[in-house]
Design a protein that fits this description.
- By secondary structure, the chain is α/β, with parallel strands linked by helices.
- The protein has 11 helices and 7 strands.
- It has a 7-stranded mixed beta sheet.
- Helix 10 crosses helix 11.
- The longest helix is centred in the last third of the chain and has 40 residues.
- The chain is elongated.
- It starts with a helix and ends in a 13-residue tail after the last helix.
- 27% of the residues are buried.
Length: 311
């Protein structure tokens, strides 16, 4: 992945999330699943070199949904999903109190798979239930023709049509046909007149086809995405926010270092806590509450003040 694409992966993911937010997965054959928001995927590892989870969503009933897609299916995938679930529960227990979350495991199967042996895997002590979506049942040509007609007329796509465009490459069988359909879908996405829909479609297609696109072609599209005005605007805003945060952090660090040195000097000179608090408030223009925080943090309880100084 190029430096540009790597540094701005969170920006493209934001647009994919916006496309899915408040939408059902009806185009995938799962109309009962409605997404509310995307959740962080920086999960604790169970094993070294563990695969990264790309899609974790909050649903309208406050349950969580793991969404993955496969062009093949094996026992190794089952182990992968169990690890995903364990990592999510580990993170949830560490950060939340109360009951464990309800989890949905949603697997979107490309047209290469017509069915799986089972949607329920019984291990005795536990059962793994997969909610499956088989894209082989979708009509690639009908979807492509309908969306292409709207795009060529300069019309906006509905959210459902956006999802159909994003998953279009996965509705055909074989690696090469998928890559060709991905290129056709990307051409349609680039022809969209609404810039936000354009970037959402491009980011979505790249997200869902990252396993099948040629690396060079994928990298070029990612770099093209980063040249769009709306992305540049978000990137510039992010840089400004980062600079503001950095300046604020530098100021806070400077105050912390300064108060520490002053408090140590005042204590060694025999000032009381009350007197030192007033000195810190005056020196650094702090409220009494903030000054007391620094006093409590840096005051050495093993050092006794010998004299009292009047301000």
């Amino acid at each position: 992945m190029s430096d540009i694409a790597y540094q701005n992966h969170d920006i493209t993911l934001k647009f994919v999330t916006d496309t899915l937010k408040n939408q059902t997965l009806a185009p995938f054959g799962l109309p009962h699943i409605r997404i509310c928001d995307a959740l962080p995927t920086n999960l604790p590892a169970i094993e070294a070199n563990e695969l990264r989870l790309d899609h974790l969503f909050l649903l309208e009933d406050d349950s969580l949904a793991i969404i993955d897609y496969e062009s093949t299916f094996s026992k190794h995938d089952i182990i992968k999903y169990i690890n995903y679930i364990a990592r999510i529960l580990k993170k949830y227990v560490a950060e939340h109190s109360g009951d464990m979350p309800k989890l949905h495991l949603i697997v979107i199967y490309s047209a290469d798979i017509s069915q799986t042996r089972s949607a329920v895997f019984d291990f005795g002590c536990m059962k793994l239930f997969i909610e499956s979506a088989f894209l082989r049942n979708l009509s690639t040509q009908e979807i492509y023709g309908r969306i292409a007609s709207k795009v060529h007329k300069g019309e906006l796509l509905t959210n459902s049509e956006m999802l159909e465009l994003i998953i279009l490459p996965l509705t055909v069988k074989g690696s090469e046909p998928k890559q060709e359909m991905a290129k056709k879908a990307i051409r349609l996405a680039k022809a969209l007149t609404d810039e936000k829909q354009q970037i959402s479609a491009l980011a979505g297609i790249l997200t869902f086809t990252d396993k099948i696109l040629d690396n060079k072609f994928s990298r070029r599209i990612k770099e093209e995405i980063m040249t769009l005005k709306i992305i540049q605007s978000i990137y510039d805003d992010g840089k400004e926010e980062g600079m503001k945060f950095g300046r604020k952090q530098g100021l806070l660090q400077g105050i912390a270092q300064g108060t520490k040195a002053l408090i140590e000097t005042l204590q060694e000179s025999g000032y009381s806590k009350e007197e030192s608090t007033l000195k810190v408030m005056s020196k650094f223009s702090l409220s009494q509450k903030d000054a007391k925080k620094y006093i409590n943090r840096y005051w050495d309880s093993t050092t006794n003040s010998k004299t009292t100084h009047l301000s």
